[in-house]
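Follow-up to my post from last week.
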Amino acid sequence: MASDYYYTSGDKAGQLKPGARPETNSDDVATGLPEGIPPQPDDHESTPYRYDPVAGAWVKLID
Amino acid sequence: MTYGENGSVIGPQNLPTTSAAPGVWSLGEIAESVRDGIWPAPFRGWFATWNPGIYTDTGDASSNPQIALDSSDNIYISCSTRDSSASMYTGAIAKVQSNGNGLVNNNRFDIESGGTQESIRLMGLEAAGTNLYISGDQMDGTGYAWRAKLNSSYAVQWFGDTAGDEQYVQSGQNTYANTDMKLYVSPDEVSAIHVYYGYLTAFSSYNAIMMPIDPATGFNMNPTTSSTNYYPVEIYAYPTSMGGYINGAGMNNGRFAYMSRAYSNSYGGYNVQYGEVDDGIYSGWAGMQSARMTPTGSGGSFAGVYANSPKIGPYRATGTPGEYYWNGLLDVVGGTYNGTLYISKWDPYTGGYSGWSLGYRYAVNAADSPATPTMFNCDSAPINDSTDTYTYFISRDNGSTPTQNYLFKHDVANQANVWQRKILIYKTADGYSGTNNAYFRKLAIDSSDEFIYGIAAINTNGTDQQECVVFKLPVDGDGSGTYTVGDYTIVYEASTATGTAGDILTFTTGADGQNQATHTSSGTLTQTVTQPTATWTKG
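User reply:
Got it. Predicted complex:
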């Protein structure tokens, strides 16, 4: 079964064909936080937090 | 014909179940079959609790449970166990008798540095062949991720990487794991991807890494050590300080895929980023097909509609195109379908990044619960049976007082529910009206597609418990009832979540990721396996 998106034989089998891969923002990296998001907790470098958009707060990921 | 086997009917055998006895039965046969326990057929599944017996003081608790079946259907379970007074974690692994009557063995897995016990969490358990692949993190000091391979006797086959036993996304920066960001291994033990996350100073946030490793050695396959084109990949947010995490991942014998609740300013905030690649991540980010979606409906806006903790499970077919197929499971937040649980098949081989179809969504029915739930949550990935005919998944509602779980048998190809059951767990003495939660972090199915298995960490009446709840349930959905399991009551019965077929996904490009270049391995650790006395109680 041929695929429009993947090589199916040869040394590139399983790899995406040119043009099949969505573009990315890999070369366009912005740092900082978006407007309206509170600052990360002071200990965020040692303790992982993830922003909870429902709670509107940074939530600790470990005990 | 032996009585009780076919109800006096000549032809294909009709076996009685717990609820039906097909065929034509004489009164005598009925009496004999009831007398001999042939019909109603006894419930072939079980519910049980497991306390690994490592930290057993008041306040100690178990978390991050995992379950896996090896190639002979031996049942393995694991968890992290916490000593609350010492703020110390360690790992537990056990092997369960198939009939649920007890444990074959019970083990404590410790990691030491310089002869001193490390505070480690065991959060990933995969069985392949007759081997066990475990992974987790360390919680004391600068956190690190770890991975190991054990044989069926729990002897360590390898631990860590050739460059060191502690895995970091960046040297000197805290690195962690969870029950989604863990070590994944292909069933044929040819490939493995170690997923973990850590702090990146350049991004001022925590970001996940997907690291291809050799399951025979544990070594990463990055060009710096093996001169190949297998690259680790990281994903991140836009802007980067929002962090990049993986909520769900899976792999089969050919492919690996992930899903993430991702933030991007360019797409109105949160959405779902997902990707798929060969099981060695050949060519790294350039070889990964990664994109964005929102469960908002065809042509809908990305703004504010996402899945809170999306999961993805592989199809089990081998070769092309079966190994490219995935089932995504989304707990939708925002928009028209807010609160629903949505399952859809992804066929990137035929349809590329937008090749999702056969969607079906479930809406929680408050009448199923003593509380008033409005949403479904995802805690574990969907699993397929061996022929990819049926998919099983479990979801937790947000009732809180109590929260229930819902187990679904779903026919993806025909966009149809086969059956659904709710599971309520509480301490009998406390009743169910307090805060009660069960977190089922992994499901498994046996090789003959007869039983599904699950394990949960539990919080009853607002308190994390030392016991994990383990179940083995027949795939026909039999066994509804109320089970007393030691101090706990478990109610397993039909539920009525509303199901609706239809595709609700909208897609775009613009995924954020790149080859991960700052990862390091360092340190030397030792491991010990001992056998504490566990408490196993079958209901």
